[in-house]
Amino acid sequence: MLRLAVIVLLLANAGYYAWSQGLLRPLGYAPQEQSEPQRMNQQIRPETLQILKVNPSKTSSAAPSATPASPPLAAAANESPSPPPAASAPADTAECLQAGVFDDRQAEVLRAAAAGLPTGSWALEPTPVPGRWMVYMGRFDDVETLDRKRAELRTRKVDHDRAGGTFELGLSLGRFASKEAAERELANLGNRGVRTARVIQERAESPGFTLRLPAVNDALRAQLDVLRTAMAGKTLRTCG
């Protein structure tokens, strides 16, 4: 079967070759000829055509220059550069400054020092100093007794420090802005075994004053040196 297929394929190829080459034209089997005689009739003196060589150097020299032309001098002269924007002067900004709190004596010193400043540029505003209460233990007879009590408090893990000032030799177990808060803490300490502490007023409420300069600009800032020695070590800060 395979041999028959090969023989048929060879005969078909041989027949196609004979047909395409016109070998079967006498039998009436041949491909149709493609010709355009009218193109030959349209040629005009084909014998005069010549093939010429092109000189590469002449071709490149004849190419136009790619360098852009410079602008006319007159036009360039008329175009003056734009002036740079003028730098604006920094604004003289004012800020609010304050210092304090000062007691009555310190406030009197400040009033005298600030008297030469512009009117309305400063003020001493009343700022009462609230009283303060302490959970206090003491006063002990000597340092040895004080140290023994401190060791006892450390064992009970109770925070404390030296009372200081007129309350030596004694210990502070906490300072509070109100008597009620101090008494609550004393009750808590009693639950932890602290029995000999008590609540005392460490500092009574007293009048106080805050120095306030609402609008300090550069001109006023240069005059503030007169206040430095009268401020009792306090410094000016931004108003809160």
From TrEMBL:
Question: What SUPFAM superfamilies does the database record attribute to this sequence?
Answer: Sporulation related repeat
Tell me the segments the record calls region Disordered. 56-92
Domain SPOR, by residue range, is 130-190
InterPro entries xref list: SPOR-like_dom, SPOR-like_sf
Which residue intervals are annotated with compositional bias (Low complexity) in the record?
56-80
Name used for this protein in its record: SPOR domain-containing protein
Native species of this protein? Acidovorax benzenivorans
